[in-house]
Amino acid sequence: MIYLILFTTAFISATLFPLGSEALLIYDITQGHNIYLLLFFATFGNSLGSVVNYFLGLKGEEYLINKKLLNEKLIIKSKKYFDKYGAFCILFSWLPIIGDPITFVAGILKFDFKKFLVLVVISKFSRYLFIVLIV
């Protein structure tokens, strides 16, 4: 049950809802739970939440264009820039506040999903590994 709660918290915290999973991870570590399982479930949940953001951006692009909240020409111009530097940006998806919108924008700009997934997992895993190592 501990791991399911951590997974759920990490998942929700990676979506556009404000919630943090780091405090729960630290608490679970101090309670003596299996660090490898904690690291796995936190990374898996947080990465899956970022995938949800990606698909919301991917599917929401047409809606945003139709509502005139996005300019299609600007998207095309931004896509070229994001294709060039997006991989670097996605590595910052672990950051609070700006990380979740980065994953949303990656979906809007149709960044290659395979690259996206690898980079997000690296980013999220690195953050949780750092927390595990300092606790």
| Uncertain parts | none
* Inertia-based shape: elongated
Report on the biggest sheet: none
Number of strands: 0
Q: Determine the mean pLDDT.
A: 91
Cα gyration radius (Å): 16 Å
Helix content: over 70%
**Total of helices:** 6
Report the span from N to C terminus.
22 Å
Sketch the topology as an H/E string, one letter per element.
Answer: HHHHHH
Going by helix content, strand content and strand pairing, the class is mainly alpha
Q: Which band does the percent of strand residues land in?
A: under 5%
Topology, pairings included?
Elements: H1 2-14, H2 22-30, H3 35-66, H4 72-90, H5 99-108, H6 113-134
Helix pairs in contact: 1-2, 1-3, 3-5, 3-6, 4-5
Structure description:
The protein has 135 residues and is mainly α. The chain contains six helices and no strands. The protein has helices at 2-14, 22-30, 35-66, 72-90, 99-108, 113-134. Helix 1 (2-14) packs parallel to helix 3, helix 3 crosses helix 5 (99-108) and helix 4 packs across helix 5. The longest helix is centred in the middle third of the chain and has 32 residues, at 35-66. The model has no long low-confidence stretch (mean pLDDT 91).
